[in-house]
Amino acid sequence: MVTSDGRRIECRAVIVASDLPSARELVTLPERESRRAGAVYFSTDKAPTDSRLVILDGTGKGPVLNAAVMSNVSSSYAPAGKHLVVAALPDVIDGDLAAVARTQLRTWWGPQVDAWVHLRTYRIAHAGVEQRPPFHPKRNIALGNGVFVCGDHRDTGSSQGALFSGRRCGELVAGALA
Ligand SMILES: Cc1cc2nc3c(=O)[nH]c(=O)nc-3n(C[C@H](O)[C@H](O)[C@H](O)COP(=O)(O)OP(=O)(O)OC[C@H]3O[C@@H](n4cnc5c(N)ncnc54)[C@H](O)[C@@H]3O)c2cc1C
Q1: Ligand 1 centroid to residue 19 C-alpha, Å
Q2: How many domains would you assign to the chain?
Q3: Ligand 1 atom closest to the CA of 26, numbered from 1
Q4: Whole-number Cα distances in Å, 62 to 48, 73, 129, 139, 165
């Protein structure tokens, strides 16, 4: 294998473990439609919850689908000693995603949300691959000549799908090299 800076590495297998658009720059894979998403980040002195979990919108009304206090997972996500809250929502809304998110999160955590400082809003063009029915999650991970590929685009568009494809890929490579 030859890296982009010209180094030659002798190996029996190469695993391309990236998002689909990046993988397609390195190996031949069919194009697939991307699903867009928005992510809004807030800073706050006080976390609205001690939970380390992703908190889902149980009403199903949205548009915020889930929120998480990232600094509960690791304080390094808020090095200034604050808390970092992120809200994820579809990037199909015109206007100010931060205002929309704040309005909804106020119904979860009350007026403390008004004191949160908006840090950044990202509109993410490729948040994952589109997976409308009919959907076949187990995609090919062995491209031949010792090249393998893994990532959520090989299974389901989720952390679980990414991990599952990684295990599938690892087991196949181990078997191929045994
Ligand atoms: C806003 C948002 C919210 C989400 N919420 C959830 C959720 O609540 N639950 C859930 O299960 N999933 C969620 N997801 C989806 C989840 O994040 C992805 O499915 C998962 O991260 C995919 O993992 P991956 O390892 O396949 O790819 P990625 O996490 O995209 O990792 C690929 C890595 O490859 C790197 N890379 C790219 N090109 C190269 C290169 N040439 N060389 C070296 N490295 C490279 C990238 O920098 C990146 O770090 C969310 C996604 C977004 C965007």
Answers
A1: 6
A2: 2
A3: 41
A4: 19, 24, 21, 31, 29
Claim to verify: residue 163 and residue 77 sit in the same structural domain: no
Could you report the per-residue pLDDT of 129-155, keeping only the tens digit for each? 999 999 988 999 999 999 999 999 999
Residue 138 near residue 155 (C-beta atoms within 8 A): yes
Q: 106 C-alpha vs ligand 1 centroid, how far in Å?
A: 28
pLDDT value, residue 173: 95
Domain containing residue 102: CATH number: 3.90.660.50
The pTM of the full predicted model, rounded to 2 decimals, is 0.88
Q: Is residue 4 part of a domain?
A: no
**Domain limits at 89?**
35-129
Is there a single domain that holds both residue 100 and residue 118? yes
Instruction: State the DSSP code for 152.
Output: G
Give the ligand 1 atom nearest the CA of 165.
26
In a domain, 9, yes or no: no
Ranges of residues in the chain with a pLDDT under 50 are none
Span 51-71, pLDDT tens digits: 999 999 999 998 999 999 999
Residue 121 counted as domain residue: yes
Q: Which residues line ligand 1 (CB under 6 A)?
A: 18-19, 22, 37, 39, 54, 66, 88, 124, 127-128, 151-152, 157-160, 162
Q: Which of 152, 163, 167 to mutate to test the pocket of ligand 1 (most atoms within 8 A of CB)?
A: 152
Pseudo-torsion of CA 10, 16, 18, 22, nearest 10°?
90
Is there a single domain that holds both residue 90 and residue 113? yes
Q: Residues 81, 99: contact at Cβ < 8 Å?
A: no
**Per the domain annotation, does 171 fall within a domain?**
yes
